[in-house]
Amino acid sequence: MDGISMPAVFESVLDGILVFRVSGSLHASEFEAAMKAGEEQTRESGHFRYLVIYDGFEGWNHDFVDEGADARFTEGQDELVDKIAVVGDELWRESTELFLLKGLRKTAVEYFEPGQEALDRAWLES
Question: Nearest Cα to 9, choosing from 41, 34, 33, 32?
Answer without folding.
Answer: 34
